[in-house]
Amino acid sequence: MSKRDDLIAKYAEQMKDKLSISPDMDLLRKITIACGPSIYNRDASTVAGTDQSELDTVKNGFMTKRLGMSDDGAKSAALAKVMDTYGKSTRTKYRAVVYYLLVKDLGLEGKF
Fold this sequence. Notes:
Recoverin, domain 1
């Protein structure tokens, strides 16, 4: 297995164990690939759920540019829901999983 495949397996395991979600592995793979090299960087591979600048990066970078969303209220609400789903007790919030949850919650699987 490649390092990317190992990471995808780790993301899927976290989703099953901590979030009780059985992920669509094809979609998770596509989203992970879309994250690019950030998944290999310890800091960039995670999202700090309490850091507003980090949340703004997700909204402006992923939700606006990749998903084509323009309504700031909708972006904030969707991101807040995902952070709530992930939970405060889960310290390591993987970027690919956050993106996956956003895509599924918003019904934008067709973007991948």
